[in-house]
Design a protein that fits this description.
The structure is a homodimer. Chain A is of the alpha/beta class. The first copy, chain A, has 15 helices and 21 strands. In chain A, strands 1, 2, 3, 8, 9, 10, 11, 20 and 21 form a 9-stranded mixed sheet that branches. Chain A has a 4-stranded mixed sheet with strand order 4-7-6-5. Chain A has a 4-stranded antiparallel sheet with strand order 14-15-17-16. In chain A, α1 (32-43) runs parallel beside α7 (183-197) and α4 (86-96) runs antiparallel to α5 (103-111). Residues 1-5 of chain A have low confidence and may be disordered. Chains A, B: Residues 24-473 form the FAD-dependent oxidoreductase 2 FAD-binding domain. Chains A, B: Its cofactor is FAD. Chains A, B: This is FAD-dependent oxidoreductase.
């Protein structure tokens, strides 16, 4: 048995002869969780050093659409005419992101959400435009600031939990000119500017290798590699881990979330899970390691206008819900098999509808005059698809979808010509599980106690999601609990 | 933050003033993995002490049906007229127990399977009766020794992987007189007799609390509680952990396998996950923590004769497969919603068919003359169930099930009167994930290196299953890798 990565083991501080860098709070990773931690630690008076593996700040966040899941009545929600309460937000998150959600974390997140909005907008200068995008889509095609991003206004949630849109996206600048000014960039630029203004230092090309502990087991620094050379970094108060998910660690994905094997998405190659492993070597506990965000590579403007069927020709989800729920249901519950059944008129309407994802305007694979022909061409057993369409159409004539509860406005009988889009194996995503942390972002030992000096946030931790997902929950809990990690470390 | 179970942290050997017990190899848990480890360690010349939490040997194994998943051409398979090869066994296990299976472990398991049979039968005296039970069922109702227990002879596997029955069950004695002489008992009695004959000592009412390590990090003992008093146990060569799953640790189930919350089955309250946590405190790695065996509480003799539909009235699995696959598909892919649709004649036949589980001969909830009436009574949308039955019957008239591939012998049009059994929330099970171990049953540190002196097997480890399951895989890998744990510890 050869050692695969034995340097994830902690190094004893007594063996460190020289510290190359030193700060009160050392933050690993300059994505959304790391930047939020840095700002708050610096605001609390700490001298902060961020170690970033790549050549610049941003992480996966800067490349993301930029949604932050916020609610409870934010100024943006109010300006767009939506009521929301922390109570409704909690109810939705607990229903949609489980089973097995971390309830204290969701409670803290929802109760602090309006404050978090103010911090982002007022303290850090993240711009939000007070306009609502109400069309189906992964993201607004323009610079609108608010969208439904969790299926709040769709079955099965809308019937019992008053819905509100909670996807807050920073206002994009010249979106069509440069992808570098999308919502994620417009979140990260102000956050990192703020960090710089507060005196936060950053070292780039710094790969964190392992943690340094003193004789009492307290984390007092990290060992990193910079330009291939090992460097030591002393943390006088605490270390914050914020290095992202394990979506690009093949062995970890195989061991914990194998359905996601070879299909990482919305994540970056730096997401190698090392922060998780370094912490496991200290006895850190884990949670929800199988949980995954799942993108579904088709424009919702298309699939909301038809019916999604699985490999048996059966409908399995209301097509008007959050497309990430469609992705999860397809990958986890339907063997990654999906087809969109849609008539020509609806397809054309979907193609013409605005979308921020033109590459997801997928083409039909089969087009026929009748459902029977389509069914045969798709290789489905006789009657399998015909019966699905017949039952759907029967109710659609009354504008109803009693099987899955799609909203009446999107329910319309499927006519002819009829097409099928082949959406098999059209999913990808990132991992949501990781280190178990307290509501104050302390990394918890398997004993239940915090590991002294060690804090974490973002996708190296298990955050508010336990399996379900809503767009914005990751930048949301990354920034929210990133801030708490920074504050906790600063006073440690 | 108060400490929940801080004593899972390792104790330094230097702080132990007195060892209450001492042995070369200390085995925690006297179920199938522990007994197998004890026998092999003793056979290798080690002085062995087993620490068992309850008042007697047996663990969950002694209460189980007793299946051991074996193949590759065992004497029992041959005596019953079945061909099998290690290659076919590997192909099946890799296809059925994944995704993400530990391939080296499956390879070792399949290549060593015939030898393992000989060890069980010839070395240890586990009795197997050379008779095959070919009816649908969880277990043979009598004392037959061989059964299909993984869906090998059903879709989708049978078409590409030559099937063979691999569920080997020890011959029961007076089964109807005493449940203490079921297959699991008849496995554990010979194993523990063999251990005793080899001089293995056992201490009962011993709750292992944590591991003891020396200054190099080697595991050199355990701390336990006996009759409420803390005792120390020195392991001169190694410690083997074999204390079962975490199915009864509510916090762990919530964090890792929340779909199983409040529905443990085929497990015992002693399965508290402590061995996993004690090892995590040493930096042990984990795998497949979400994987679960899922029992489905209905007699296969009933459901094979009808069609299973989900909460939308859709079929979702071939009813002639391994019932554990039905359980997994129901719980994980269909929101734990299932109904059995069956006509009177088939129901009566199923009720009359032999079964080892009379309590699973469930009663109908609704009985109607027509499918339309049944559909309405069940509260399904008009057409949802009618179309399912219509399409099934259309093909069943030709003896075919093109949708899901149920074998022709079980395909028969559904007539009238027609009934529905309410099988919602009729699942339960145990966890399959746990410590990551090598093929030699060394507990692996997150670095990839073995933790010196620490070995494990059975359900506190991730064994051959990564999510899928076959009956006998748990007693199978528990005994197989339990033996390896004992041998590895004896020579450590």
């Amino acid at each position: 048995m050869t050692s695969k990565s034995s340097d994830v083991r902690p190094r004893p501080a007594a063996g460190i002869e020289h510290w190359d860098y030193e700060a009160d709070v050392v933050v690993a990773g300059f994505g959304v969780a790391g930047a939020s931690a840095a700002v708050e630690a610096a605001t609390a008076g700490a001298d902060v050093l961020v170690l970033e593996r790549t050549g610049g700040w941003g992480g996966a966040a800067a490349m993301a659409g930029g949604f932050i899941y916020l609610g409870g009545g934010t100024p943006l929600q109010k300006a767009c005419g939506f009521d929301d309460t922390a109570l409704n937000m909690k109810a939705f998150m607990k229903a949609a992101l489980g089973p097995g959600v971390d309830e204290p974390k969701i409670d803290a997140y929802c109760e602090g959400s309006v404050d978090h909005y103010h911090w982002l907008a007022d303290e850090c200068g993240v711009p939000f435009k007070a306009s609502f995008w109400g069309e189906p889509g992964w993201e607004p095609p323009g610079d609108d600031g608010l969208q439904y991003t969790g299926g709040e206004n769709a079955a099965p949630f809308a019937a019992t939990i008053p819905p509100a849109p909670r996807g807050h996206v920073p206002q994009m600048q010249d979106k069509h000119v440069s992808s570098e000014k999308g919502g994620g960039y417009m979140l990260m630029k102000p956050l990192t500017d703020k960090a710089a203004a507060l005196g936060v230092r950053a070292e780039y090309d710094m790969r964190v290798q392992t943690l340094v502990t003193d004789e009492d087991g307290r984390v007092v620094g990290v060992v990193a590699k910079q330009y291939g050379k090992e460097v030591t970094v002393r943390a006088r108060r605490g270390v914050v881990l914020a290095t992202g998910s394990f979506a690009y660690n093949q062995a970890m994905v195989e061991a914990y979330a194998p359905r996601l094997l070879n299909r990482p998405a919305a994540s970056i190659e730096e997401h190698d899970g090392r922060a998780i492993q370094m912490s496991q070597a200290l006895g850190a506990d884990l949670a929800h390691m199988d949980a995954t965000e799942v993108a579904f590579f088709c424009d919702p403007q298309l699939f909301i206008r038809g019916i999604l069927v699985n490999g048996r020709g059966q409908r399995y989800i209301n097509e008007d819900t959050y497309p990430g729920r469609v992705g999860q249901a397809t990958l986890i519950e339907n063997q990654n098999q999906a087809f969109l059944i849609i008539d020509e008129e609806a397809y054309e309407a979907g193609m013409a509808a605005p979308s921020s994802s033109p590459q997801l305007k997928r083409k039909p694979r089969w087009v026929c005059e009748t459902v029977a022909e389509l069914e045969a061409e798709m290789g489905l057993p006789e009657g399998a698809l015909q019966s699905t369409v017949e039952v759907y159409n029967r109710h659609a004539q009354q504008g109803a979808d009693p099987l899955l509860g799609k909203k009446a406005e999107w329910v319309k009988p499927i006519g002819s010509p009829i097409a099928a889009l082949d959406l098999r194996n059209s999913t990808g995503g990132f991992t949501l599980g990781g280190l178990r942390t307290s509501v104050d972002s302390e990394v918890l030992h398997v004993s239940g106690d915090p590991i002294p000096g060690l804090f974490a946030a973002g996708r190296c931790t298990a955050g508010v999601s336990a399996g379900g997902y809503a767009s914005g929950a990751s930048l949301g809990d990354g920034s929210f609990f990133g801030r708490r990690a920074g504050r906790s470390a600063a006073k440690a």
